[in-house]
Specification:
There is one protein chain. The protein has one domain: Dihydropteroate synthase-like (TIM Barrel), CATH 3.20.20. It has an 8-stranded parallel barrel, surrounded by 6 helices. With 326 residues, it is of the alpha/beta class. The longest helix is centred in the N-terminal third of the chain and has 18 residues. Helix 2 packs across helix 3, helix 3 runs parallel beside helix 4 and helix 9 runs parallel beside helix 10. The protein is built from 12 helices and 8 strands. The chain binds 6-hydroxymethylpterin-diphosphate. 6-hydroxymethylpterin-diphosphate (HH2) binds next to strand 1 and strand 5.
Length: 326
């Protein structure tokens, strides 16, 4: 079974800021942690994690994002060894079954390097290459796409007193510096993420979501993660497990404003919501053709094979076919 990066040759993510009709990707969150804010302890064994990955793939995920360290506000850091112990066997097991792109949600270069050796295809670094001085050269050497996320402070301190004069303007300035740093280090495929909930008040989060199109000036694909986050609870009063309506509403909002990748826990619900939104927007038929062809690379979910094959082929077409990839 080839690695996803071999299969896709190079993972390219759509730039929907410039090409809004391109298909938006759904990234399924898989936290192999005891303490993540919404699913901590649920996928804390290899078997449970792999089962959840299969479920998300069958439900329409385009990417699986695997993390071994909670970055919720106030979270304590885990050692790299512990982080690796949690996620490497899960990445290896998923890779044995599927060629779907896997991203590794880590701030640590050693973990990123070992995850890529096990078959991960994308580095998702919430510190935007600031936490580990070896991360930039590790990513450049691996030649994989890197997701740079904005965060004010660190997870331990970020929600104490976030302050901005113009949150969107400051996030853009942050990325201007980070993108140039990453490019100078030799990383060519970069995705940006405004970091909803990372060192932001409710008002900061809302302003960033409202003003998402301003990030288009940076010329990169944009990933957004609102799923189940506390700002939704602040608005609706819903506890973490009951934030699906708010998650969908906020994700469709950013989809309309050019987000290329939606990082979500509830893949089936998000994929269905997107299917409807894309159909109303008239994009549905353009995606339909690609669903007719199959792929030999799929996990063994009986009864799901046709749709999984079709979707993987569609994903391959999407991630490889865009002429406007970053
Ligand atoms: N949010 C979380 C973790 N990683 N990565 C990116 N790029 N964007 C995000 O918004 C983002 C992220 C936090 O969510 P979760 O992984 O569910 O929780 P925890 O950090 O507690 O594991």
């Amino acid at each position: 079974m080839p690695r996803a990066s071999e299969h896709f040759s190079k993972v390219q993510l759509p730039d929907r800021m410039r090409n809004p009709h391109e298909r938006c990707l759904v990234m399924g969150v898989l936290n192999v942690t005891p303490d993540s804010f919404s699913d901590g302890g649920v996928y804390n064994s290899i078997d449970a994690a792999v089962l959840q990955a299969r479920t998300m793939i069958a439900a329409g995920a385009d990417i699986i994002d695997i993390g071994g360290e909670s970055t919720r506000p106030g979270a304590a850091m885990v050692t790299e060894a512990e982080e690796q112990h949690r996620i490497l066997p899960v990445i290896a097991a998923i890779r044995r079954e599927s060629v779907l792109p896997v991203s590794v949600d880590t701030r640590n270069a050693g973990t990123a390097r070992l995850a890529i050796a096990e078959g991960a295809d994308i580095i998702n670094d919430i510190s935007a290459l600031r936490h580990d001085p070896r991360m930039a050269e590790t990513a450049a050497a691996a030649g994989v796409p890197v997701i740079l996320m904005h965060m004010q402070g660190t997870p331990a301190t970020m929600q104490r007193a976030p302050q901005y004069t113009d949150v969107t303007g400051e996030v853009i300035a942050f990325f201007e510096e980070r993108l140039s740093f990453a490019r100078d280090a030799g990383i060519s495929h970069l995705v940006i993420d405004p970091g909803i909930g990372f060192g932001k008040t409710l008002e900061h989060n809302l302003q960033l979501l409202r003003e998402l199109p301003r990030l288009g000036v940076l010329g990169c694909s944009v990933l957004v993660g609102t799923s189940r986050k506390s700002f939704l609870g602040a608005l609706t009063g819903a506890d973490t497990p009951d934030r699906l309506p708010g998650s969908i509403a906020s994700n469709l909002h950013v989809w309309e404003r050019g987000a290329a990748v939606l990082r979500v826990h509830d893949v089936r619900a998000m994929r269905d919501a997107l299917t409807v939104a894309e159909a109303i927007a008239g994009y549905h038929q353009a995606f339909q053709g690609a669903t007719d062809s199959g792929s030999e690379n799929t996990h063994a979910g009986a009864g799901e094979r046709t749709s999984v094959e079709a979707r993987q082929q569609r994903t391959a077409d999407t991630v490889n076919g865009g002429t406007h990839a970053v």
